[in-house]
Specification:
By secondary structure, the protein is an alpha/beta fold. It has one domain (34-303): Phosphoenolpyruvate-binding domains (TIM Barrel, Alpha-Beta Barrel), CATH 3.20.20.60. The protein contains 13 helices and 8 strands. It has helices spanning 15-19, 38-47, 59-67, 79-82, 94-110, 130-143, 157-165, 181-184, 194-210, 222-231, 253-256, 281-294, 300-303; strands at residues 51-55, 72-75, 116-120, 147-151, 170-175, 214-218, 237-240, 248-251. An 8-stranded parallel barrel has the order 1-2-3-4-5-6-7-8, surrounded by 8 helices. Strand 1 (51-55), helix 3 and strand 2 form a beta-alpha-beta unit. Helix 3 packs across helix 5 and helix 9 (194-210) packs parallel to helix 10. The longest helix has 17 residues, at 94-110. It is globular.
């Protein structure tokens, strides 16, 4: 017969720990590393240290990512596809981005995290005018973002400059821009012709001059991404499907854990496949950070064009 623990025999429970469930520390713990900011990101670029970026959409995964050594966390509008089950990012609203940014920021704050937090401005939230972009950026910044991301070049230059002049750091995004996937004719590699490559180089340089502090390069040939990275001296580049010559890498959280509702893209690697003795989410994140930092991911022969 199994005995039932009584008050006298049951293990003691710390009252403070019991009052703060789900792993919250009863006493704030000291920072394990210095907080990442724009000066640190520029130093990493200058010193050749790769920047490891990962998406996150909730408090717990954000805190785990920070503990694994992720430098930048992006609350991406990719949440429309991986969290909401949409076919593209076009249907993601500013309110959804605000909600998830606030969740991630709360998790990072609770964990006394060091990672730099970026929030995506979703489709339709900055296209009307630079004033609309400012209002939308304020929503994400007040939710906890430290930077906002905007897709596209050309017409976005005035908006980027307008936001930066008002103290809002901006991450630009060129190459495949998912919010305009219908205009691009699908998820296709960009910059394959000399004309389109020249345009991308010009737009990247113009975005740096407008004040962009980071630039995501998505699905562009590795050689072109390397050219752009060498061209920009004040704006680190973050690649996704752009080869290993960029200043850093970003992946969607679910992709790097091998979880996807559709076909895995060529530039994705499953860091939780157990092949290298990795059997936990935190272990997979640490493996991703190591691979980005030592340059073994991405492998241009496998993950780039």
């Amino acid at each position: 017969m199994t005995s039932v623990p009584t008050a006298a025999t049951a293990p003691a429970v710390n009252d403070a720990a019991a009052a703060q469930p789900y792993g919250a520390p009863s006493v704030p713990t000291p920072l394990a590393r210095k907080s990442i900011g724009l000066p640190r990101l520029r130093d990493m670029q200058a010193q050749g240290e790769k920047i490891a970026m990962l998406t996150a959409y909730d408090a717990t995964f954000a805190a785990v990512a920070d503990a694994a050594g992720i430098d930048c966390i992006l609350v991406g509008d990719s949440l429309g596809m991986v969290c909401q089950g949409l076919d593209s990012t076009v249907g993601v609203t500013l309110e959804a981005m605000r909600h998830h940014t606030e969740c991630v920021a709360s998790g990072l704050r609770r964990a006394q995290a060091a990672a730099w937090l970026i929030g995506d401005l979703p489709f339709g939230s900055y296209h009307e005018s630079k004033e609309q972009a400012l209002r939308s950026a304020v929503v994400l910044m007040q939710a906890g973002a430290q930077m906002v991301k905007i897709e596209g070049g050309g017409w976005t230059l005035e908006t980027v400059r307008f936001l930066v002049e008002r103290g809002i750091p901006v991450c630009a995004h060129l190459g495949l821009t998912p919010q305009t996937v219908h205009a691009l004719g699908g998820y296709r590699v960009q910059g394959k012709t000399e004309e389109s490559a020249a345009l991308l180089r010009r737009e990247a340089s113009a975005l740096q001059d407008a004040g962009a502090s980071l630039l995501v390069l998505e699905m562009v040939p590795a050689a072109l991404a390397l050219e752009v990275t060498q061209l920009l001296t004040r704006c680190p580049t973050i690649g996704i499907g752009a080869g290993n010559g960029t200043s850093g890498q970003v992946l969607v959280l679910h992709d790097m854990l091998g979880m996807n509702l559709g076909k895995m893209a060529r530039f994705v690697h499953n860091f939780l496949d157990g092949a290298a003795g990795v059997h936990s989410v935190r272990g997979a994140m640490r493996a991703y950070v190591r691979a980005v930092k030592d340059g073994s991911f991405p492998d241009n022969a496998l993950h780039a064009w």
